[in-house]
Design brief:
412 residues; binds adenosine-5'-triphosphate; 17 helices; 47% helix; Rossmann fold; alpha/beta; binds magnesium ion; 6-stranded mixed β-sheet
Length: 412
């Protein structure tokens, strides 16, 4: 099951080129490791999802996501599409229960259960829209440390090998992330890194920005392959100004548009057309454009598709389908600390020049302070000078420690 954001629809609409791949017999596909199989999560649904923020200027509460609902079944891929600033990332963050500086209301259920945070995090993973790699690690080490920090001890090498193979990164396994792999390979690594723990639901924010449609689709197809599944359907959530304009099968969007009196011209990419339709940012007449968006939203709310979606979500919520989770043993603070230290030493070792320079600088400072200290007399007259020397050395050390902040943010 995949829930992905933006850019995906354009590719999804062109996915007929990849149908042979989708139809490929599972037996012919690469061997899927059992860690990646999904036999527990059957659906994720969300209803009444509203995210409100306090406007800094006016102090008023403003909904940046308003009563959004959806339902994604196991094996489905849902693309969230909409103009920039319409709330795609906010929706994914709210669905994935990531901390956001806003009030979140609504229900998000896996199967029919609102899971506690720990269980929810166990079955989901989130790929951010920007890379958060440590550049001086190799591709394999990146996956190894992700696996160690997640507490995976059992068959972790097998998982990593499967991921490297599935994401076409075997030849780059020993390459440094910063210098040895391309932008597209980095995005693939970002997804592979999140799959180490074998999540059943993957949220991808701009998973493929800057990539062409083949890698875009390959990412989804690879994930399906790992789960020994095919992408059974591609659904689409069209958002505008935080509100739903359409939710349903990708293949049904053209019929839906015709049903509400919007004709998609021939020889025009439907994705581009829809994006333009719900985008008011560059309109000459903002009032008319806003009215058009409001009308489209009312038409959606009154449509059969919206009713059916509502009923499906209600039926899902009413079913008593639970979820059993076998949690991996998470490493304790000590274990995590050791892994992070190991990672830092490796980083320092790879960046030996910078760290040697730092070491020499600190030693120079120590010698300087030491000689100053030795020159001071041990009598009352020197107390003020001793205090000054202590203050200067403490201040200097604190100042130098601040230089580690960027590295801390990178590690974090
Ligand atoms: N914590 C926040 N505080 C204030 N405003 C926010 C906050 N988070 C998001 N917003 C606003 O909410 C709206 C939706 O933002 P979001 O990042 O979800 O858009 P997006 O659809 O992902 O855009 P893009 O395609 O450019 O990534 C924007 O207008 C943004 O300014
Ligand atoms: Mg975004």
């Amino acid at each position: 099951m995949r829930v992905s954001s933006t850019e995906c629809l354009g590719n999804a609409l062109n996915y007929s080129a990849f149908k042979p791949y989708l139809r490929m017999d599972i037996e012919q596909r690469p061997v899927a490791e059992k860690h990646f199989l999904n036999t527990t999560v059957h659906k994720i649904s969300w209803s009444g999802l509203t995210v409100a923020i306090k406007d800094r200027r006016t102090g008023q509460t403003r909904n940046i996501l308003d009563n959004v609902e959806g339902l994604v079944n196991s094996g489905d891929c849902c693309a969230v599409m909409g103009p920039s600033g319409c709330g795609k990332t906010t929706l994914l963050n709210a669905l994935a229960r990531r901390p956001i500086n806003a009030t979140v209301d609504g229900r998000v259920c896996i199967n029919s259960t609102q899971l506690p945070d720990a269980a929810f995090r166990h079955v989901t993973s989130f790929v951010e829209d920007h890379d958060t790699f440590i550049g001086s690690l190799t591709v394999r080490e990146t996956l190894q440390f992700a696996s160690k920090l997640a507490g995976i001890t059992h068959e972790s090498q097998a998982r990593i090998d499967t991921l490297l193979k599935s994401f076409g990164l075997v030849d780059q396994a020993s390459a440094l992330v910063e210098k040895g792999i391309s932008k597209g390979q980095k995005r693939r690594l970002a997804v592979a890194e999140r799959l180490v723990t074998g999540p059943k639901i993957l949220f991808l924010d701009e998973p493929t920005s800057g990539l062409d449609s083949v890698p875009v689709f390959t990412l989804s197809a690879t994930y399906a392959t790992l789960q020994s599944a095919t992408i059974s359907s591609l659904s689409l959530l069209l958002l505008s100004a935080g509100k739903t304009q359409y939710f349903g099968a990708r293949s049904a969007v053209i019929d839906y548009c015709e049903g509400i009196g919007v004709t998609i011209p021939q020889r025009v990419n439907p994705a581009d057309f829809l994006l333009e339709l719900v985008n008011i940012d560059f309109s000459q007449d903002i009032t008319a454009a806003s009215q058009r968006i409001a009308d489209l939203q009312s038409l959606w709310q009154a449509s059969n598709n919206a009713q059916l979606l509502c009923e499906s979500i209600l039926a899902t919520d009413r079913s008593s389908e639970g979820l059993s989770i076998q949690a991996d043993d998470k490493p304790g603070i000590g274990g995590q600390l050791m892994t992070l230290l190991q990672r830092s030493f490796l980083k320092a070792y790879r960046d030996i020049m910078a760290y040697t320079f730092r070491l020499v600088m600190y030693m120079g400072l120590a010698i300087l302070m030491g000689t100053l200290w030795l020159q001071l007399d041990r009598n009352q007259d020197s107390i003020q000078l001793l205090i000054n020397a202590l203050l200067v050395s403490c201040g200097f050390m604190a100042f130098m420690a601040v230089t580690y902040v960027p590295a801390f943010i990178e590690d974090h």
